[in-house]
Every structure is written in C-alpha cells, then in structure tokens.
Amino acid sequence: MAGFEIIIVGGGLAGLSAAIHLSREGKQVLLIEKKAYPRHKVCGEYLSNEVLPYFNSLDIDLENDLKPVQIQNLLYSTQNAKSIETPLKLGGMGLSRYALDNFLLNNAEKNGAETLLDSVENIHFENNEFTVKLSSGKEFEAPVVLGAFGKRSNLDKNLEREFIQEKSSWLAVKGHYEDAGFPENLVALHNFEGGYCGLSKTETGVVNACFMVSYKSFKKYKNTEDFKEKVLFQNAYLRGFFKNAKPIFKKELSIAQISFQEKSIINNHILMLGDAAGLIHPLCGNGMAMAIHSGKIASEAVLSNFTGNKLDRENLENQYRQNWNSHFRNRLKTGRILQKILINPFLASTSQNLVKKFPYLLEKIISKTHGQPIV
Ligand SMILES: Cc1cc2nc3c(=O)[nH]c(=O)nc-3n(C[C@H](O)[C@H](O)[C@H](O)COP(=O)(O)OP(=O)(O)OC[C@H]3O[C@@H](n4cnc5c(N)ncnc54)[C@H](O)[C@@H]3O)c2cc1C
Predict the structure, then answer these.
(1) Rounded average pLDDT per 10-residue block, the chain, 375 residues
(2) Element (H or E) spanning 54, and its range?
(3) What is the DSSP string of 289-313?
(4) Which residues pair with 192 in a beta bridge?
(5) How many whole angstroms from 175 Cα to the centroid of ligand 1?
(6) Cis ω on the peptide bond leading into residue 38 (within 30° of 0)?
(7) CB of 43 shorter than 6 A to ligand 1
(8) Best of 16, 21, 32, 34 to mutate for ligand 1, by most ligand atoms within 8 A of CB?
(9) pTM here?
(10) Which residues neighbour 223 within 8 Å (Cβ) at sequence distance 6 or greater?
(11) Which of 23, 42, 61, 138 gets the highest tally of CB atoms within 10 A of its CB?
C-alpha cells in the first residue's frame, strides 16, 4: 500500500481544480479518475467568467491556451419561440469539456499530482485514516479524501447516501454541430414542453447543443429523433437549428437519472466537492464554476488545517462546511425552485411568459444563480 496526504476521487472540474491547487502548494496528491481523457461529457459547455481570477492565481490561462469563444449575450425563448436577448453581466466562455478537462489534468500532472486511471470501489474511514479501494484491487491510504465523483456514482450507493434512494426524473442529450450562422458571442436557452435546450459555440467553432428533459415527457416517444421532431421542434428556434445544422458526432451522448436533490456536504469525513455535494439546474449555467470554486474552498480548508503531519479534522470540516454553505446554499436553493417550476407544464409556460414580459426577472435569476469573480 502506498500513502498520500490527499486522495481525490474523481477527475472532473472539482477534483482537477483541487489537485492543481493542492499539488502547487507541495501537497502529495493522488487523483483517481475512472475514465480516460480527452473525452466528451454531457454538458452545456458554457463556463462563467467568474472562474478566471482563480485560474489566473493557479497560473492557468484558459483564454490563451484553449482560446474559448467569448460569450456576452443570452437569448432566451419560450416554448412558442417568443424571445428576449439580454447581456450577461460577467459573461462566459464557450469551451468543450473535451479540451477543458484534459487541459486541467495535464496541469495537475505538471504540478506533481499523481493521477491514476481506475475506478474507486469503496472508501473506508478508521483510526483517523482513509483506505481507498480500487476495482483493480489496489488500495491507497491517506488522512484526507476529497469526493469529487460527480452527480451520480457507484460510490453514492456504497456510501449509502440518502439522495440515491430517490428516483431522479431528468435525462440529458448532447451533440456537436456545424452551423456557420450561429453567433459566436451568444448562449441560447430555448424552452420546449418538459425541458430546455442550450446552444453555444465552443473553441473549435462547432455549436454544442445540449437538451435536458423530464423522463415523464421523454418516455412517450419512440427515440430521441421522434422526441425532437414532435416536441423540440415546436419551438421554431430549435426546429430551425436542428434542421440546418450538421451533426458531428456519430451518435449523441446521453445521461439519465440526473438528480437535483440535497446532498450531504461531508459524508463519513469525506469532503464532497462539485456535483457530489449538489447539482444546480443546468439552466443556470453555473455548475462548472461552482465545481471549480468548491475545489478552491476545499483546498484552502485543507491547507490551513493540515500542516506538516498535523491535521485538525474538526476545524477542516467546519471551515469547509461553512464556506460551502455561504457560497452555494442559496444558489442551489434557487436552482431547485427553478427545477420544480420547469417540471410543471402550467408553471413552466406561465413563468416563461412572465420572463418574456419582464426581462428584469431574467437578470434577477441570473444574479441569484451565479457568483462573483472567484478570488
Ligand atoms: C445536461 C447538463 C448541462 C450542463 N450544462 C452546464 C453549463 O453549460 N455550464 C455549467 O457551468 N454547468 C453545466 N452543467 C453542470 C456541470 O456539468 C457540472 O456541474 C460539473 O461538470 C461538475 O463537475 P464535477 O467535477 O463535480 O463532476 P464531473 O465533471 O462529472 O466529474 C466527476 C468525475 O468523477 C469520475 N468518477 C465518478 N465515479 C468515480 C469512481 N468511483 N472512481 C473514479 N472516478 C469516478 C467521473 O468519471 C467524472 O470524470 C450541466 C450539467 C448537465 C447535467
């Protein structure tokens, strides 16, 4: 068995940000990710600019190294394609997860973090030490474990987390498309009955189209194409886009069982990061920034409570819980309210029409679900 100071389980945005931050400060970090990079992930691929100051502090220059598309405007349309366009105060970047996650992984390795391609099967805490068991049969020990294994993982079951007992009613489908006419500086959120579809360009010039829908609405149709034809295309914007754009993927990616339920922030002494601590409704476009931000506050809590061989676990957990709550609790609450509205057809169409009538409401929702620049 090999020993590390910190084991990070899951190499998405939360885990990778923490790995970069902690290894930069000289901590011995092992990051375990179950799937190889680069790879596409189901995501809207709109990243709020609030992450830029934090990444700069880690010497990560997304703008120069990955050349994301700069997005300054939001176009929002109702199911019957009534639309409003509003500037985004902070703005954001159109950047594929294919490029972003792989880039951060390379940075973590450059800083000295060890990375391992394997799946974590179990995490056991005893005598103030974690034992992390992998599906390859390997085992590692560390005094600190960060759980950054995303919205739904085998580990949620093994750790007997409450939210995993409940059925989750959302699924998502994503693809990349060629569409020369789609504006560079825009993220579009188009509603349809039972869900919404986000469109925005990425660094390669393709348009990422990602839609999320309640399982109840989707299951009435034969397949994705049938669903698009009969439901998505009721919105003229979506009909226009999908009829003209050329798909790049052979097959769209999809995920199911997406849960917005409340989760524990600390579970059996494991600090939960990113979606493992709670997923905000993707319509808010802030999950990636929140995952990265949680990597920052977890790293800061570890660094201030784990010096030399001395670990103050109680203070570490209190500091993380407090900071997590102050940054994310309200944003997640607003996201959950949005999710409840969207799943109810009457409330969904009433609220979309209200937003169309009173654009100020849209700005309010954006400000309630986004953070300030992360410094
Ligand atoms: C449909 C949809 C659209 C979205 N669009 C946007 C958007 O446009 N903008 C935005 O800001 N946010 C968006 N989000 C949210 C955003 O994708 C997430 O909040 C963000 O990816 C969370 O990062 P994470 O690091 O917590 O998890 P992830 O990025 O999911 O990473 C978790 C990692 O853990 C690994 N893992 C899991 N289990 C194990 C295990 N047992 N052992 C080892 N590794 C494991 C997984 O392979 C994965 O790589 C969207 C989400 C959805 C569902």
Answers:
(1) 84 98 97 98 96 97 97 91 89 97 98 98 97 97 98 95 87 95 94 92 98 91 94 96 96 93 95 96 89 98 95 98 95 82 74 76 76 88
(2) helix 52-57
(3) HHHHHHHHHHHHHHHHHEETTEE-H
(4) 195
(5) 16
(6) yes
(7) yes
(8) 34
(9) 0.96
(10) none
(11) 23
- At CA 42, angle to CA 135 and CA 178, rounded to 5? 135
DSSP-assigned letters across all residues of 24-72: HTT--EEEEESS-SS---SS--EEEGGGHHHHHHTT--HHHHH-PEEEE
Whether 20 lines ligand 1, by a CB cut-off of 6 Å, is no
Main-chain dihedrals φ then ψ at residue 117, nearest 5 degrees: -95, 100
Is residue 150 within 6 Å of ligand 1 at its C-beta? yes
In single-letter form, the type of residue at position 107 comes to: N
Q: Which residue has the tokens 């939001």?
A: 74
Residue 178 DSSP SS3:
strand
Dihedral of CA 345/339/187/148: which sign? negative
Locate tokens 């390795």: which residue?
Answer: 109
**Domain 2-58+92-166+259-340 classification at class level:** alpha beta
Question: How far lies 148's CA from each of 135, 145, 278, 294, in Å?
Answer: 17, 9, 11, 10
End-to-end CA distance of the chain: 38
